[in-house]
Every structure is written in C-alpha cells, then in structure tokens.
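Input sequence (332 aa), recorded before submission:
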Amino acid sequence: MQSISSYTVISGTTVMTTGFNDEVEREFYLYDEETLDINFTVGAAYIKFFDTNDLVSNLSQVFMEFSDGTRQACNVYSFGVGENEIKSPYHIKCEFWKRPVKIFVEKNENLTTAPVFKMRNERALEFAAYLTYDLSQLDLPSEKGFLVFDMAIEKPFEKVFIVDEFGDRYEVLDGYYHYETKPDKLYIFKTSGMYSYYDLYNLRLRYIAETYDDLDDILTQDNIDNKYLSIDNAKIDLKYSNLVSSDKDQIVVIPVAYSEDWQFTSEQVYDTISVSGGFLGIVIPKGTSQVEITMKFSPKYMDLGLYISLGSLAIYGLIFITPLVVNKKKRG
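Predicted structure, token format:
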C-alpha cells in the first residue's frame, strides 16, 4: 500500500511589488498560481516552514492576490503558552472566498532567501471543511481501474469526492473509487477525529491502485442469458437467467463498494459479502434458475446523494455484458 502526504512543498521566486496596504515597491517572494494549484474558491491554505529552523518571528507582510487583482492579508500564527514552530498548527493561514492565484511573503533582513514551505489546503463546502489531497501525480496502472483509500484514523470517509483532470466531480463510497479519467484532487470531509488529530500535516492518505485484470477470482459465465442491470437513484435492479443448473453457490459481483446499507427491496433476498477488493457480492444459492433482485442504498447516518460513486456508473454496462459470476468456495 502506498501513501500520499496531506501537503505539497512549494518554493517561491523573488519579485518587485507594492505592499499589501502601502504603495512602496520592494522585494517579495512570490508563490504563483501553478505553484499553489488551488482549484476552488472558498477555503484556506495552511502553510508551515519546511525547514524547522526557520522562525515565524521572521515573517512580516504575507498576503494573497486573486485573479481580479484584489488582495487580502494572511494571518501569521501567534504562539500560545508552550507552543513553538514544531508544535503550532500552522505558521501562515490564508482564508479566502475567491480563488487565490498568488501568495506574497515579504523579504526582509531576517528572511533573505525565498523560504520553502509545506502547504496543505482545506476546502469549505456546504458549511463544512474538506481536507485536500493531490492525486495528480499518481502512477496509475491503467486508464481504467479502481482505487482503494485508507487512513490511520477511525471512520475517515464520511463524505469523500474526487475531482478529475477535467474538473468533473465523482463521489467515493467507503473508500472505493472506480476511475476512467485521471483523478486530480481528493476531498475528505473533516470529521471530529480529524479536528483533534495531533498534526494534520502528518495525516497521510494510503491507497491501492488496481486494474480490473487484477481481479483474478472473477470468471466470465457463458451459461447466463437475459442479462439486465440498472443503477438509478441509489437502486440496483438485477435480472438474469441461469441456462444450466449450478451445483454450487455463485457470487454475482456488483461493481459498487460493499456496504451493509445496501438493502433488498425484492421478494428474493440473498446473503451479501465483500469480494474482489471491496465490491458488493450477492450470494446466489445453487440450483437457482431465475434471479430478479432489487436493492436500495439506505445509509443510516449519511446523506444519500454523497455516497454513490458516479464513476462506477460507467462500468455497469461493461461488466454485465458478460456478467461476473464467481463459484463460491467451500470453507474448510
């Protein structure tokens, strides 16, 4: 399992510009739009010196500039009792309500070279904060596949979504995500556990990237006919006929993340299990000739609209052209 840091390392260049609240032109260190890579309009950038020997007291003016040319000051952290550069939650905090394209840090006698910073971002959305992770540099094994995410914190994925390279948004369910385009940013709802986490700069995102060729246990079943699968408004409608009576239980693999919140609404009710990297598996008893199943995703505590992976919709038709059926292995 690989991991991604919660921050990016940013370096500046020296430029001449006026101060935030004066017209005196002087040297500042510029962190430009490409360096910041912030693609949302409401949120905050939390910035720390990369070198732990650099002092917050060396900072003077720090401000942002937006695409319309307006500017806004950033907050330099004031230490509390017993705090220092290492123990502080940030050194610079830039809260914004427009997308920043530049951050300027004033050059002074104590800050004679452009400091290297580590910067993590939080996005504000619907009165909530979301941690931001950069996925743009992931080395994915194929153009299509799935990602499995994890964190060293309890229940980290209450609400999660991905924005891809084209700016389209796709929801993530229980840490599982199907991709057909390159993911760019991952946004994770900031839970109470994250607010109390000792250092969000060290909260790494673990992940596994797989192709569908890696699902070794999935077999194509030629003895199935009248295949139909529909996913609409968090409902599964599955129908197919077994042309040959099976003498073993079968597992139908549905390419959505397994969750106990998938509930049967049909007369036919079967066992469900997590299979093939976390997908929903429906156990079909041996001898079943006709399968007609409807299910509904009914989360106990979550907003329904945030928990269906839109990305996975693209693979339903692909997979069920040749439905995926796995012979259920006997347990010794």
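Checked by second reader. The chain has three domains: 2-125, 130-214, 219-327.
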